[in-house]
Amino acid sequence: MGTLEASRNQEDWDGMISRHWILFSNIDNLTVRGGGTINGNGKIWWRGSCKMDASTVSRKISDALSFNSCKNLRVENLKVMDSPRMHISLEKCTGVDASHLTITAPTESPNTDGIHITHSKNVKIANSFIGTGDDCISIVSGSKNVMATNIVCGPGHGISIGSLGAHNSEAQVSNVTVDRARFIGTTNGVRIKTWQGGKGYAKSLTFKNIVMHNVLNPIIIDQNYCDSQNPCHRQASAVQVMDVLYQNIKGTSASEVAINLQCSNDRPCRHVLLQDVNLVGVGGDSAKTLCSNVQWIKRGTVIPPPRVHD
């Protein structure tokens, strides 16, 4: 009900072997709530991030609030702010109901995902405001049956499936739904991002009833993702992206390209359905769609329309 604050003194963290500040592990039927604030005081760590300064050797940085191997978990009515790294992390959890959360950090704060989901299933996130320096919600390998509803996202990098397939790894993500979301001034809206060289799949993904306000990349699939100081060379394998629905998505794009579907040469995206989409440039200017290596289907009115040959 009050405020939990992390120490601003980096020396207090020396000797830490964990990437977690507050960790709940292997607990069933846990509820964390109360209306209070968890303040990670992350500013001291962001300055030393290699993403802020490429010459820096980063120290081990903690996530603010982590749940590992929990079943039937409820997290509700909390404010989490200024985490050194990710704000809320769900790993190997089953049956999660997270709602009425407010998660905030400055736009320039690196790697401060709002909610990060990995190897978890049957997860519901609802009625929450998330604005950070990275993904509002990131859903990575091993996750299935994830639903996010009534989410306001911004600033940040949007809601992302991935990244997947880094270091030639195998990824499996399925049955993810984002329904009733609003993106405000984010770099991405709904994004799927995979590295070249990966294996596995991201399938049965639904993004519907979404409003974009001045979003740089409202709808994006990037199968050439490369978050590295060194160039990423072309590789033969890729995570298979398939069975993706974009439905009733409208609003404004801050760039000329409102829909950007850049899929793998070796594993083209399959069964991508665009239905009732209306995205225009800021001020009502026309935008465009770019497609590469994608098997798409159009239903209803889709603006800007995909081009058959690109």
From TrEMBL:
One of the GO biological process terms: cell wall organization
Catalytic residues (positions): 157
Subcellular localization: Secreted, Cell wall
Keyword annotations of the record: Cell wall, Cell wall biogenesis/degradation, Glycosidase, Hydrolase, Secreted
InterPro entries: Glyco_hydro_28 (IPR000743), PbH1 (IPR006626), Pectin_lyas_fold (IPR012334), Pectin_lyase_fold/virulence (IPR011050)
Keyword Cell membrane listed: no
Domain of life: Eukaryota
Entry similarity comment: Belongs to the glycosyl hydrolase 28 family.
Name under which the protein is recorded: Glycosyl hydrolases family 28
The organism of origin for this protein: Musa troglodytarum (fe'i banana)
